[in-house]
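Researcher: I've been going back and forth with a colleague about how Thioredoxin might be arranged in three dimensions. Neither of us has a model we trust, so I'd like an independent prediction. The organism is Ruminococcoides intestinihominis, in case that matters for your notes. Sequence below.
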Amino acid sequence: MPVIEIRGNSKEIFNNKDLYIVDFYASWCNPCKILLPTIEEVGRKENITIYKCNIDDNTELTKNFHIMSVPTLVFVKDGKELKRLSGVHSKDDILTEYYSLRDSEL
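Model: Here is an independent structure prediction for Thioredoxin. You can compare it with whatever you and your colleague have in mind.
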């Protein structure tokens, strides 16, 4: 699944009923740039839906999720936050959290 860029305070992500990840980032953030290849790999190889949200372009959505630092990964299902990870994390860390949340919902 490709990574989907959120544009213009889009609320489309709340229509997604599956478990997905929202990557809050900023273009000026070096840790965000470090995390980017990992996020793209997780989305592509694991077929996980990932939305990218630039905090400077999507201030309303950033406020709604109470984002205080970037990068922050928010795990969401049915429009509700289940968990978040702040900072740079490995692919294994991200997948462990994702599959743990997914399996607990089954």
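Researcher: What would you highlight for our discussion?
Model: I'd start with this: The CA atoms of residues 20 and 49 lie 5 Å apart. After that, consider the following. The first helix runs from residue 30 to 46.
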